[in-house]
Specification:
single chain; 21 strands; six-stranded antiparallel β-sheet; 10% helix; mainly beta; 3 helices
Length: 346
């Protein structure tokens, strides 16, 4: 018995020192703890990937900037960190985790804002106790040059900066990797009804990424997304699934103008949507084979309603996957739901 307990303890120590997992179902692909470039003050050009930060200080993350040579400083500051593209990023659902930041932050990847938490002055409120988790659109990553994360931070009082927690780029342990990736540029229009719009009536938007970060800050209401896709003939005979990401809050999804699924009742929206859980669900819709035009253009349209805070197709997998692969991955996911202790003692 004593030897068994010792054996278990050794296994635990080994796992704790080698694990790259975070929380439930996330695996770290890139560790971002360590030295970052840092400068106090505020200038939006610091978000640009080609900005020269060579004269900036090096500061350790996570830590307060007071502990890194800036005692008593309150106000604005910027952090910057460069990293190279890793082949493990390919075709994955990626999340940038930046721990707990005191008080407000705004995060850019290669010059494009991908998230913000809290509110900067003059309408200031702190989010010092909220963990920062931001989706990374594959569309924004550069494979042939360095990628740059820039973080604008505002601290009102006491400690400031990127204080504690997990820092890195993470992915899901179990993923629904599509055979056709639909992340990237979609067409977008604010409207409630699906009229026969011309192409000039639409604007481009990145999916998945909250529309609040793309020129539609604080917009609540109805909007449409549209994307054309060519499905190769070699997929004929396979049952296909549309992965439409996570959508805040409700959606109604169409394939070649035929509804194939919805989440939440978009026709009967409650007066208070704040307690709805629909926004956190990955959309998964079966595509009837008789709707598909192989080797020709097919059109996906998604009607979205957002009633509170941020909106749009903001995270998750966006693409087309075979039903066979989807079921296999779901089965693997259910197997993994056993607790750590159950797996250890089995």
């Amino acid at each position: 018995m004593k030897n068994r307990i010792t054996h278990i303890l050794l296994i635990l120590i080994f796992l704790l020192t080698l694990t790259e997992s975070y929380g439930s179902g996330k695996k770290r692909l890139l560790n971002l703890k360590g030295q970052w470039k840092f400068s106090i003050g505020d200038d939006k050009t610091r978000a640009e990937p080609n900005f020269d930060d060579s004269a900036w200080d090096n500061i350790f993350v996570p830590s307060s900037w007071e502990d890194e040579g800036y005692p008593g400083y309150d106000g604005y500051a910027w952090y910057r960190k460069s990293f190279e593209y890793d082949e493990d990023f390919e075709n994955r659902d990626l999340t940038l985790i930046l721990g707990f930041i005191d008080d407000v932050d705004e995060v850019y990847l290669n010059g494009i804002k991908i998230g913000t938490t809290g509110s900067f002055p003059p309408i200031y409120f702190t989010s010092y106790n909220s963990e920062r988790m931001y989706h990374i659109p594959q569309y924004l990553l550069k494979k042939d040059s360095e990628n740059v994360i820039a973080v604008r931070v505002y601290d009102d009082r006491l400690q400031g900066g990127m204080l504690r927690g997990n820092f890195g780029i993470y992915t899901g342990v179990t993923e629904l990797l599509p055979v056709i990736n639909l992340c990237g540029r979609w067409l977008f229009k604010i409207a409630e009804n699906n009229d026969d719009w011309g192409e000039t009536d639409w604007e481009e938007i990145t999916v998945p990424l909250r529309w609040d970060y793309q020129g539609y800050k604080h917009f609540n209401g109805f909007a449409w997304y549209k994307k054309d896709v060519i499905i190769p003939k070699e997929l004929a005979g396979k049952q296909l699934i549309l992965l439409a990401g996570k959508i805040d809050d409700y959606d109604q999804t169409f394939f070649n103008d035929k509804e194939i699924g919805s989440t939440g009742n978009i026709h009967n929206i409650p007066d208070d949507i704040r307690h709805s859980s629909q926004w956190d669900k990955q959309r998964v819709y079966y595509i009837p084979s008789d709707l598909i035009k192989y080797d020709k253009v097919n059109t996906i349209k998604i009607k979205v309603y957002d009633g509170y805070l941020h909106g749009g197709i903001y995270a998750g997998q966006v693409g087309i996957i075979t039903l066979e692969k989807y079921k296999r991955l779901k089965k693997n996911t259910q197997r993994r739901k056993k607790s750590f202790w159950e797996r250890l003692f089995n």
